[in-house]
């Protein structure tokens, strides 16, 4: 059961069915309520019409026994003392009216001497002059009860209308309208709803299940392909992209973009490990050779060369460690202010073994970041310029709008335009003929760009006015 309702299709079908069921039940109850109210209003209208018709006849002077009340409409006329003056034919029992009795009072109950004669001799049986008309109340009251007519009992809505006859006697006319039509109609509609609602809910659940299944079919394809990629570790595979323009298609495209980025990252990591192993092999092998020769022939031990190899190993290990931290997402902590001009002066003042002189053009400007990492960037750029310069290196610092700009230029051969992005890749050296001892491992520029990017800036290379390469670092000032 948990597995069934753990699927999106099952939850969607169940949710849609519940929502539709609640909506249909609410709508059904509202329809029944409106239908019942409408039918009751119609019954009240009929009862009021019948009651006013009888009341009008009484007010006109018709005697109670001469009313000729139809047996199809239950009518009861009750005076102020609760005596029944007239009832409709075949009315056997009644509730909800002014009296439970269905037997009119005896002779003398009508407006004439015998309750149904003509007291004034005008031939209309009203017992009074035609000029003295009774009065019918403009208001009516309603109630519910029952009536038994000719052996059949039913529920009725009663309309009560007060009327004063020509003799001044106040009576109340009760006329009833059956509620059987209302009960039957409401019952029929309710039964239809009870039968149709489950069928409609089944249709809704089935349609939702099928539609959701079709909509999620590409998702299942993506899942299967991802499972296959995980099992095979083949990151070159891609998940199928449906030809739609919905969320599933965007999910597939995003998944493929993630796989492509992951593939590139793994490839770069493998290349990095291979290049690092290659770069470490040379100084380690050289150092081992010197130590083995020194062990066999102490007088031939090249101590200075061994120290240089150790220093080179130390620098390479430090570069690899920094790259590993940068790849792990390390960013400068705190973002403390760094005076870029002061940092340049201090770092260049410590460089005593540069091959060519370094000229500075610095203006006061501050950035936020790690002073140690920014010093590493400056050192790597100056080292690169020193390797390629012919007669001098220029370092400039200035502020341009909201940017702090650091430039390092040399007067060497420069960087070909087609190689200006490639030199920032790891272990890339354009001067392949240069010895590894002089040319470095090819990590300095890669480290410099990674550090600058993580400080929110950019590092680019172009042609310098001196004819060589111009490296420009831009960081947000502040």
Alpha-beta content class? alpha+beta
Oligomer: single chain
Number of domains: 3
How are the strands of the largest sheet arranged? Answer: 2-1-6-5-4-3
Radius of gyration: 53 Å
| DSSP helix fraction | 40-55%
Number of strands: 13
Give the count of helical stretches. 9
In round numbers, the mean pLDDT is: 83
Categorize the overall geometry: rod-shaped
Query: Which spans of ≥5 residues are poorly predicted at pLDDT below 50?
Result: 107-131, 432-439
H-E order: HHEEEEEEHHHEHEEHEEHHEE
Q: Could you tell me how far the N terminus lies from the C terminus, measured between alpha carbons in angstroms?
A: 61 Å
Strand content: 15-25%
Largest sheet: 6 strands, antiparallel
Observed structural traits:
Helix Hairpins; 3 domains; five-stranded mixed sheet; Heat Shock Protein 90; 9 helices; alpha+beta; 47% helix; single chain; 478 residues; six-stranded antiparallel sheet
Brief write-up:
By secondary structure, the protein is an alpha+beta fold.
Write a structural description.
There is one protein chain. With 478 residues, this protein is α+β, with helices and mostly antiparallel strands. The protein has 3 domains: 14-184; 247-325, Orthogonal Bundle (Helix Hairpins); 333-476, Heat Shock Protein 90, CATH 3.30.565. Helix content is 47%, strand content 19%. The chain has 9 helices and 13 strands. The strands form 3 sheets. The protein has a 6-stranded antiparallel beta sheet. A hairpin with a 5-residue loop joins strand 5 (152-164) and strand 6 (170-178). Helix 4 packs antiparallel against helix 5, helix 5 runs parallel beside helix 9 and helix 7 runs antiparallel to helix 9. The longest helix is centred in the middle third of the chain and has 53 residues, at 180-232. It is rod-shaped, with a radius of gyration of 53 Å. The two termini are 61 Å apart. The model is unreliable at 107-131 and 432-439 (pLDDT under 50).
